Amino acid sequence: MNDQDIWVAEVHEEDGQWAIRETFQMNGPFEDAEDVETVFVNEEPGYEMGYIQDGIPVPDDAEVFEFEGVFDWKIWFMSSLQQ
């Protein structure tokens, strides 16, 4: 790890405490990736996330996260629980 790494964690409550279930290093899409790339799909509790190139329309039911100093891509997240 270094100060340039971007990590996303799945956090849930377990016996009154917050616990990390999964962690994902999200430093950017692979070279020659599609405009929208799915990195991870979790059927339970029901979400998916990945990368989206800058300037690509984002679905209404997706959240997009931008990072300081990163201009050409973003991380998108969509939860089936939001629907």
- The end-to-end distance, rounded to whole angstroms, is 35 Å
Count of individual helical segments = 0
Question: What fraction of the residues are assigned to beta strands by DSSP?
Answer: over 45%
| Category by helix and strand content | mainly beta
The helix fraction, in percent, is under 10%
User: What Rg is obtained from the alpha carbons, in whole angstroms?
Assistant: 14 Å
N-to-C SSE series?
A: EEEEEE
Largest sheet, strands/sense/barrel: 4 strands, antiparallel
Given as residue ranges, the uncertain stretches (5+ residues, pLDDT < 50) are none
What spatial order of strands do you see in the largest sheet?
3-4-6-5
Q: What is the total tally of β strands?
A: 6
Mean of the pLDDT scores? 86
Could you explain how this protein is built, in words?
It is a single chain. The chain has strands at 7-14, 17-25, 36-42, 47-53, 63-65, 73-79. It is 0% helix and 49% strand. With 83 residues, it is an all-beta fold. β3 and β4 (47-53) form a beta hairpin. The termini are far apart. It is globular. The strands form 2 sheets. Strands 3-4-6-5 form a 4-stranded antiparallel sheet, with no helix packed on it. Strands 1-2 form a two-stranded antiparallel sheet.
